[in-house]
Amino acid sequence: MDASKKVDLKIIIIGALGVGKTSLLHQYVHKTFYEDYRTTLGASILTKVVAVDNTPLKLQVPKETAAAWCKEKDIPYFEVSAKNNINVAEAFETLAKQALTTVRIFESYLTDSIKLTPNDKPKKSCC
Fold first, then answer.
1. 112 phi and psi, to 5 degrees?
2. Contact 61, 22 (CB under 8 A)
3. What is the value of pTM for the model shown?
4. C-alpha to C-alpha distance for 93 and 52, rounded to whole angstroms
5. How far from 79 is each of 24, 98, 121, CA to CA, in Å?
6. What does the pLDDT look like over 4-48, one tens digit per residue?
């Protein structure tokens, strides 16, 4: 993978109502913690650009609730605290590194282009 190529990744935050998913996002993206939040219904998306192995990554972080999703998908689980800024950056950076590794594996199977027609004109035969 070209290190100058920007990669966009989406990270999904899961958890029960009121556990601090929005606080976690704000701590990671804006380095802020607010004591009071209104319940976020639906999706809340924040974006942050980070560099992993000299590759710029644009992380879009929507929130989603799902039971045992991490375990089912074999995705790392982190206990974090947005209020005390514990494991916030580490969690996002670990996930970004794993996602970039997966992107690189898939890109290794892709070709630059596929030609459907030959460059030369077909030769005509006579008779």
1. -70, -45
2. no
3. 0.51
4. 8
5. 11, 18, 63
6. 677 777 777 776 677 788 888 888 888 888 887 676 655 556 677
Within 10 Å of residue 104's Cβ, how many Cβ atoms?
13
Alpha-carbon gap, residue 120 to 103, rounded angstroms:
36
The secondary structure of 39-84 as a DSSP string is PPPS---EEEEEEETTEEEEEEE-B---TTHHHHHT------BTTT
| Token pair of 81 as six digits | 């605290």
Distance CA 56, CA 54 (A): 6
Using DSSP's 3-state secondary structure scheme, residue 97 falls into helix
